[in-house]
Amino acid sequence: MTSQTDTQSSVTTVYKVTGMSCGHCEGAVSGEISQLPGVSSVTAVASSGEVTVVSAAPLDEAAVRAAVDEAGFELAGTV
């Protein structure tokens, strides 16, 4: 299941991340993903485990997984 919205200049993808429980968790995940090339916006919501990423082009899931792992959490896939 992929929730991906393409506009003329960006792609929005919603990922499911397990283990986030607070604002610090949201910040850690957002900070790591925002460093990926082409990412313009990241919104993480601990209560739902959803991370919404806006990027210039679709992101490589392995790169997103590595960023989430670096933050100390697990990418469960896309919503």
UniProtKB/TrEMBL annotation:
Annotated HMA domain residues: 11-76
Alphabetically ordered keywords of this record: Metal-binding
SUPFAM superfamilies given for it?
A: HMA, heavy metal-associated domain
* Pfam families, A to Z: HMA
UniProt-listed InterPro entries: Heavy-metal-associated_CS, HMA_dom, HMA_dom_sf
Protein name in UniProt: Heavy-metal-associated domain-containing protein
Query: What species is given as this protein's source?
Result: Streptomyces lusitanus
Native organism taxonomy: Bacteria, Bacillati, Actinomycetota, Actinomycetes, Kitasatosporales
